[in-house]
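Input record (Table S2, row 226):
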Amino acid sequence: MPFDRSPKIAPSILSADFADFGRECRAVQEQGADWIHVDVMDGHFVPNLTFGPAMAKAIRPHVKTVMDVHLMIAPVDPYIDAFAEAGADILTAHVEAGPHIHRTLQAIRAAGMRPGVAINPGTPVEAVEGVLDLVDLVLVMTVNPGFGGQKFISSALSKVRRLREMIGAQEIHIEVDGGIDATTAPLARDAGADVFVAGSALFKGGSVDRPEVYGANMKAIRDSWA
Ligand code: DX5
Ligand code: ZN
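Output record (D-xylitol-5-phosphate complex):
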């Protein structure tokens, strides 16, 4: 995957039909999705439960783009191999998930995936400064993780801006996740983000039988950058 900072949309399947992930992934990709964002929650690190590596493996054949797996679990290390086997391209762990994020990110790379590190709204960007040489992506949460459909936290924008300066010319994506729509996406883009996770704003009003609505929702986000 060659690196570039052009804006990319990553639909979060948290807002898709859980009984039909395969078709949902195909539908959003046919409508132009750049990556597929897969939210893994454990009911412990965050107050919600979704699914694990078996589900990621099941949808893998339906993901022709990039499978971007966001782990909201603690601990992370015991599950790294399972997500590698499931076919994750990017595996992102939260800096808050344990005391040894450096080791975790090394282990993700060693397992053949591209490591990402995520920070919660209450965590300063300086928390990832010591691991920037290990990652391909930093995920700045723009809501508190756990649920779709929450309101964008605008104080995250100054963190994105600082992170963009810290990163300089290093080939590291800045991903924003939570409350991204046609109003907030341009703010995050201006601040320096290049990967935009969107759940509710993207799946709203559509279905696998009405995928053109997904396309229109994505277009609204893309048009907001124009
Ligand atoms: C939140 C997840 C997000 C979520 C975004 O914990 O990490 O990926 O699905 O959903 P929206 O776009 O609805 O805020
Ligand atoms: Zn996410």
